[in-house]
Structures are given as structure tokens and as C-alpha cells.
Amino acid sequence: MTTTQTPSWPEEILAQAAAIKLLALDVDGVMTDGRLQFSAKGDELKAFNILDGLGIKLLMTAGVEVAVITGRSSPLTEKRMNDLGIRHLMQGREDKRVALLELSTRLAIEADAIAYMGDDLPDLSAIQHAGLGLTVPNGHWFVRQHADYCTHTPGGSGAVREVCDLILHAQGQLQSALTSFCLEPAECP
């Protein structure tokens, strides 16, 4: 039997993550690798990481709201968010901070209980507004400088899952979420 060990996150980040009630996410560059792909017929293609999807579902099961705020409008994004059960999808929103403020008001969640994850300059004001501002290593350097935390995993490769695990761990719910998948949970470290 192998002993598993959760990743180590900085204590100040864990303290911020413990208070999170809403995780708001950008799409391109965070939930995808940021590349825009088109078929020969001009149809847009997007690749979402399956690890992110399960992390989002685990987070929502634990009682944390998840929202998506994106500057682009895409039927593919709408389909994926519907598949995941994400009820708060705001597309075509260039000013991410204004969209985040609207969402915060609608859900009655204060900024210090919000985590926002983005990768580029249009995300910066929302990252700075949120109680926990997150980015990815393949994000713009200026955004990485101003975020509270940068994931180890690149956007589109499971970075959202890393953040979901971080929040679940900070809120004391990661281990039970993980062991719920074990054949014999009592024997699963």
C-alpha cells in the first residue's frame, strides 16, 4: 500500500481558501490551453480537461458555488458548463470585475469569500478584487505577478482541478472526497 500525500500549499493561501464560497473561472487559458482552434469549415473547437470537470463537481458537492466568466461567447462553452451543472455562466463579458461584482451581489457573497482564476490582462481586475486571486503558469507574466497564487499545472491541463483540491483541502473536505472513490474507503489512505 502506498501512502499518498496531499500537495503542500502556502499557509496564507490555505487560510484564504478556507473562506471560499464561490470559485469563478475564466475559460480560454484556464479551462482550456488558450489556443483557438477552428475546423476547415470554420467551426470552433475547444478541448476541456476531464480532471477539471471532476474537480468542479467535487467542489460543488462540497457546497462551493462555481461560476464561469468569459469574454468570448461560445456554444461549446455553454454545452460544457451545462454538462458540469454550472448554473452561473456569463459569456461575452469583457469587464470581468463588473461581471464578478454582479455575481457577488446576486449570490450575496462578499469578495473575501470569492476565488477568481484567470490568465490574461482582462482578468486582472477580477483577480485583484477577489479574496483569492489565482492564475496559471502559462498566463501573462503581469497577471502572475499580481495573483495571490499561481498553480503548478498549466491552464487546460488540470489547473482548475489543482485549485479545487486546494479549496477542498483548506476546508477539510479533500480526504473524504478522495476516499469516496476507493473500493474500501476505510483502507484508503
Cα distance spanning the termini: 9 Å
Please state the overall shape, judged from the principal axes of the Cα atoms: globular
**What does the main sheet amount to?**
6 strands, parallel
Order of helices and strands: HEEEHEHEHEHEHEHH
Mean pLDDT: 93
Strand content: 5-15%
Note the total helix count: 8
Strand order within the widest beta sheet: 5-4-1-6-7-8
The count of DSSP E runs of length 2 or more, i.e. the number of strands, is 8
The structure class reads alpha/beta
Percent range of helical residues: 25-40%
Radius of gyration: 16 Å
Which parts are unreliable, with pLDDT below 50 for 5 consecutive residues or more? none
Compact description:
With 189 residues, the chain is of the alpha/beta class. Helices cover 38% and strands 14% of the residues.
